[in-house]
Amino acid sequence: MVSSRIINNDDEYIDGLLDSSPAIVDVIYKRFARKVKHMVTGWGGNIREAANVFEDVLMAIYDYAHHHKLTLTNPFETFFLYACQLKWKQDLMQKSPGKGMAFHPVAPAPGLDEQHIRYIEEALASPHNKQEADNVRDELEEIIAGQRQRWFHTKDTPSVNVSIYVSITAIIAAALAGLLFLSPWRKDIYRQFSGTEMMHAHRVQGEQDTSLLLHQAAANFNRGHFGAAIPLLDKVLQKDSLHIAARYYRGVSLVDERRMTEGRTDLLKIYAGNSPYRYDAAFYIALSYLREGDKQQCLEWLLKIPENSHVYWKATRLREELAS
C-alpha cells in the first residue's frame, strides 16, 4: 500500500524502517533513488552498483537503529544521501582505489553534525549479516527487493523470446477482459483505491500512554483489521479530542466498516480544518459515497481536491476510472 500522508517528522523514516513500512520505503525510493543513481554512475559505477549502495545503506540504518537509539535532529535526506556517498566510497576503494581516493563525500546542505556523521560511520562499519530471528527485517528485505526493478532497472536481464512472451500476455489479457465483460461481478473500485498506511511513532519498550494506543491501532489498521483499530482510536480521542491523526484514521476505518455516517462525521471535521490530512479526508469522503453507489457525490468530492495536493493523482485516476 502506498501512503498518502506527508512526512513532517524525519524520525518517521527511521520508525518506518523499524516497522518495515511499505509506505515509508516507497517514499524513500521516490525521493532519493534517482539522486543515488546519479551519484554512483557519475563516479564510475553502474546502475546495479547504485542499487546495491541504496539497499545496503537502508539495511545498515535498520540494523543500527534496531540495536541503538537513533534519533535524528538533522534532515533524513542529508543523513541518507551522505551515508550513500560514504558507502560508495567504501565500494570504490575496493573496486578502483584511485577513484576511491579522489571521491570525497560531502553532506548535502544544510549539512550534518558530528554525532550524525558518527551514526553513519558506525552503522556502515557494523556487520549486517542477520544475527537472530527477525521477521521485521525479513519483511523489509522483501519490500526493498521489490523496489529494485522499479527504480534501478537494468537492461542486462535474462533474455527471453519477446514476441512469444508478448503474444501469450496478450492472449491472457484478452481472456481476462472477456471474463470481466461477461461476468455478473465487477472489480471492486473501492478496494482498488482505498489502500493507505497508518503512520505512527515507533513504540518504546514499556510505553503506556497515547503513543502505545496509536501503535496498537496502527498495527491493526495496517493489517486491515479496522474493527479492532476503531476502539483503540476511540480511546485516543477520549484522551485528546483534538488528535487529528486519530480522528482521520478512525474516519477511514469507519468507512471501511460501512459505518458511513460516523466515518464521514470524522472526515468532515478533518476537511473543515487545515491539517495535512485535509485532502486525504476529502478523498475518503468521495470513496464513502462510491461505496454507497452515489457516483455524483463521489465526483463532487473528488473535484474539491486541488492540483497541488499530494492525493490529486489518485483523485484523477479515480475520476478516469468512473468515466470509463
From TrEMBL:
The chain crosses the membrane at residues 162-182. Keywords: Membrane, Transmembrane, Transmembrane helix. It comes from the Bacteria. This is Tetratricopeptide repeat protein. It comes from Chitinophaga tropicalis.
